[in-house]
Amino acid sequence: MAEWIGIGRRARRCYGFDEIALVPGTQTINPNEVDTSFSLGGRKFKVPILAAAMDGVVDVKFAVEMSNLGGVAVLNLDGVQTRYDNPDIVFEQIARASPQKATELIQSIYTKPVKEKLIAKRVIEIKKKKGIAAVSCIPANAERFAKIATDAGADFFVVQSTVTTTKHISREYKTLNLVKFCKSMRIPVIIGNCVTYETTLELMDTGASALLIGVGPGAACTTRGVLGIGVPQVTATVDAAAARDFYYKRTGKYVSIITDGGMNRGGDICKAFASGADAVMIGSSFARAKEAPGRGYHWGMATSHVNLPRGTRIYVGTTGALKEILFGPARVDDGSQNLIGALKTSMGSLGASNIKEMHDVEMIIAPSIQTEGKIFQVGQRVGMGK
Predict the structure, then answer these.
(1) Domain 20-385: what homologous superfamily?
(2) Looking at 221, 270, 288, 313, which residue is catalytic?
């Protein structure tokens, strides 16, 4: 599979969403009759799309609305919601900042310590409104925050960092034992992020219910530029799915794969499922919702890093309600609305009646898929030419 890139050095060719296409099969299905549901920690959800734990996307209001629509939104316990009693003031400051000052402002905002009372308060606020309370934090805070969140009634706990492995080495601080952590939890644990077969397989042995797949593909993430690391999402998902299937055959336990980042259109989401994903996690598309707290702005989770930011603030605008983004009717031509409608139509065209059958559709390498016949769209910067 690898090609020579110089004397004594070979490298694999890997693929992202823009480089592949899905091939229709020998049957088609009425899109209204396909099943897009997925299971997570023993619970079934009709929307196989999670909202990313990013401050410009998810707050209490958004999490409740996402729950009402049949999905899951993850609240960031390391963010603005748990550092400030009134986060709206902070969001207004971030929205008003100039591009030159945005990163500096975000860095200063995140220097304020997390208030543990706000962790419980946010979870309780979501649960009081009958929402699914999924929360996230970095490994260093996991043991402390997990107890507070679980006692408050959280439904899912996400341990998330730029790159997660079972063998994190440090002499400077105590590392999180993921196996011990998962065993101690009363609620399902999701771990991220990883991109390779070997690491996916090892992380499945921790007892996690699902894994997040993706390093650096997010719209507001600059990890790939700053650190030079990452694997394009199609290849990363295919490799992780292969590990999932092998693990299931070996143990009988099915650990869900959630492709995280790099998708801002319906077609990207469909390709993620065809690559083997059980669900996907997106941020930028949801940051455009009226219910999102970011006022049309979206910033990476590592933007606030004091010494080495690995994210930036971007303007995505506010294009419609969350319901429109998920279920339509679409009012834009770029594929960023009615994501479930796009998934159902794609599944019907491919002859896949459920997400599992999407894993078996034919995929082709097609670098011209975005440009073939689209000269007028490109010239006029509409549709696929934006």
Answers:
(1) Aldolase class I (3.20.20.70)
(2) 221
